[in-house]
Amino acid sequence: MRPYRAMARIAWRNALAYRVPFLMSLSMLVFNLVAMFALWQALLGDGNSLAGFTWPQMKAYLLVSFFTNCLVSTFTDFAMASRIRSGAVAVDLVKPVDYQKGRFAEALGFALLETAAAATVCAVVLVAFGGVPLPPPGRLALFVASLAAVVPLKFLIVYMCGLICFWTQNYLGISLARVAVSGILSGATVPLAFFPAWLRHVAEALPFQAVTNTPAMLFLGRSPGLPGALAVAVQLLWVVALWWLARRLWHVAVRRLTVHGG
Amino acid sequence: MAPTAALVEASGLVKEFRRPRKAPGLAGALRHLVTRRFDVHRAVDGIDLRVDEGESVAYVGPNGAGKSTTVKLLTGILVPTAGEVRVAGVVPHRDRVANARNVGVVFGQRTQLWWDLPVQDTFELLRDMYRIPAADYRRSMDRLCEVLEIGSLLPVLARKLSLGQRMRADLAAALLHEPRIVYLDEPTIGLDVSVKDRVRAFLRQLVADGTTVLLTTHDVGDIEEVCRRIVVVDEGRIRHDGPVDVLRDTLAGHSTVRFQLAAPAPLELIRQHLPDAEVSAGAGERDLVVRFDRTLRPAGAVAAAVMGLVEVRDLRIDDEGVADLIRRLHDRDSPAALTGAG
């Protein structure tokens, strides 16, 4: 544990060294949040409900979605991709730490900062726009557990996308594609309840929905058919499966590594 | 003498890279999407290398000879296409973590310092990464701070260091866990003379203390001052392997006379008259370079022979050192590049 604790700690300190780009990308998410609030308030503000969402519920959904968007976002993938492209990954490979666990430790360090920032924004929005219905304590505990599970889950999605750099040597396109695909399939852009049935079934069979849909539904008490604890168990199952898949992918990817020059 | 347990054992080591072959321009890029064609490049082509505990080996050769690729195979960064490697009994690319504990690596052109944090933070991270006990860490740090004079650099952000300071900090970072073998990939590249001297003195001390060192370099000073053994590699193959001082002695028997002639040099004619010498053109068409074994004929005889054939404006006699070997190695067109090395 000691090496990984140290890596998480230094990642956190490094994130503080990069607070300006961090705040910039956070502000992008905040603008997006404000726009979504304005949009949904116009649709639901006068007491309407759509696909079973009332305005207070939608506010809660948007905040949870914002929170999960903030977690494991800016740092992990671009930092990793640029090290693979520049060959600096060579230095990571001669350290006595497992590459995947090492990157995860760093992602945890960043996530600390991301959580603090996202929680602050949520608090400010709650004050500005009024409260949202809080779930009962038992469900709230499950919600927090599911939010915690989002960190490894999202890390693994981001990490595997980063590994694609070993093939493409270009990351921007992959990153944009990942954000677009996971934005839709996670329910971060629009709740899954608004999807046509076939797309909803597709989304429910994929890991992305466990990133935003699962914690949001837990918060709202709307996990259809699934008791809350089971929803969290499904998240954890995805974590285990993706952890294993990422390992396989890494073993293939690292064989492709070419580092030229010193 | 150092004990003779094999620390590094590589046999039949091969590394191939695939390079996409693209025609220029948009048409070429589009065509590459449909018919992907690749050139296979063998950067390392069947290398056998054994390094014993306590040895200091210079691994030299021209750019693109496969030096850095070999180091990356030995450190487990790259996975070999074929062949086997063992370093201290560990297959580096299969068990990276175990291998990392035994080795230290310095890449002259890369840093392992955390760029935006004080140097001290990197050292503390490494202490935890390698699980170095607190007492050992203090002892190690004290020693490194003293010999590399990095004590004053500890609170400085890594990106604010000069190249020489960065290299010293990087050396310390690679040695903090007291590895059994240190790989140094061009450790003095870009450094000024005084910093080079300090780094070399430090490396000499390291070797004297029993650490195994393998360094790649283009710098003759690194070789002559630090290493006892030299391995010359070109086009992915080992071309020479032996003690540095033997190489120096062999070369010491050779001299080179550089002539400046009044007219373009008639190379064939001169070769006929000096059959046991190596006759080649110099930089200009009126330059002539004759390399010969001094034990067979004195420089005066060579000069006289040439002056009897053509009009000589100027001449200079050079004795050879390791530098000349490297220089001729870098000139790949010279077929006799290694005659002096035996």
Automatic annotation (TrEMBL), chain A:
Keywords: Membrane, Transmembrane, Transmembrane helix. It comes from the Bacteria. InterPro entries: ABC-2_transporter-like (IPR010390). It holds the Pfam family ABC2_membrane_6. The chain crosses the membrane at residues 20-40, 60-80, 110-134, 140-167, 179-199, 225-246. PANTHER family: SLR1174 PROTEIN, SLR1174 PROTEIN-RELATED. This is ABC-2 type transport system permease protein.
UniProtKB/TrEMBL annotation, chain B:
Keywords: Antibiotic resistance, ATP-binding, Nucleotide-binding, Transport. The keyword Flavoprotein does not apply. This is ABC-2 type transport system ATP-binding protein. Residues 28-260 form the ABC transporter domain. Pfam families: ABC_tran (PF00005). GO terms for molecular function: ATP binding; ATP hydrolysis activity. One of its GO terms (biological process) is response to antibiotic. It is a peripheral membrane protein. The keyword Kinase does not apply. InterPro entries: AAA+_ATPase, ABC_transporter-like_ATP-bd, ABC_transporter-like_CS, ABC_transporter_ATP-binding, P-loop_NTPase. One of its GO terms (cellular component) is plasma membrane. Its main location: membrane. It comes from Micromonospora haikouensis. It is found in: Cell membrane.
